[in-house]
Amino acid sequence: MAVDTATEALRERANRLYWTSSDTVDGVAEKLGMSRHALYAAVRPAPAGQRCAVCGKRLVYTNRSNRAASLATCSGCGRQVNLAERGAKIEAAAAAEGAREVVFTPAHVERRPGREGGVRDALRSVPPRRVATVAGALTLGALAGVVAVRAAGRYA
């Protein structure tokens, strides 16, 4: 049990030094008396302070280089988001519409090659009133179909 506590304390120190120090990775590893490989294995992603617009999970920085480049990764779906570009797009949309706040939509998310947004992403952009109208029409159509089948059964 003492080994687990010592190991966890070393991991915590490794994370703290890795994310807050300006030392190189080799310098941090040397201070901790571990290899680069062991250091990378101990480091956990750092929260980016935002959520994914597609799945709602937390965005994280997987390493210091990505943090410096404002390149976050979704902890849920794995999508990469350039937070600097994301902020600029939201500000530009707000300025264009004269709005105080602009809702962030999946269209602002950078997509990785080979991964399509799919139906779920497309449906997020449909206005709720349109969804209600289509749902009502489908319900009425289904009800009319049931009535027609029953009527046809009586006369068959």
Describe the structure concisely for a colleague.
The protein is of the alpha+beta class. Helices cover 57% and strands 11% of the residues.
Structure description:
There is one protein chain. With 156 residues, the protein is an alpha+beta fold. The chain is 57% helix and 11% strand. The chain has helices at residues 2-20, 25-32, 36-42, 64-68, 83-97, 118-124, 128-155; strands at 46-51, 58-61, 71-74, 80-82. The longest helix is centred in the last third of the chain and has 28 residues, at 128-155.
Keyword list:
156 residues, alpha+beta, 3 domains, 7 helices
Question: How are the SSEs ordered, and which strands pair?
Answer:
Blueprint: H1 2-20, H2 25-32, H3 36-42, E1 46-51, E2 58-61, H4 64-68, E3 71-74, E4 80-82, H5 83-97, H6 118-124, H7 128-155
Antiparallel strand pairs: 1-2, 2-3, 3-4
Radius of gyration: 25 Å
pLDDT averaged over residues? 78
The oligomerization state is single chain
Shape: elongated
Widest β-sheet, arrangement of strands: 1-2-3-4
Task: Quote the distance from N terminus to C terminus.
Answer: 78 Å
Residue stretches low in confidence (pLDDT < 50, at least 5 long) are 100-104, 106-115
| Individual helix count | 7
What order do the SSEs take from the amino end to the carboxyl end, as H and E? Answer: HHHEEHEEHHH
Outline the biggest β-sheet: 4 strands, antiparallel
The total count of strands amounts to 4
Strand content: 5-15%
Any idea how many domains?
3
**Residues in helices, as a percent range:** 55-70%
Give the structural class: alpha+beta
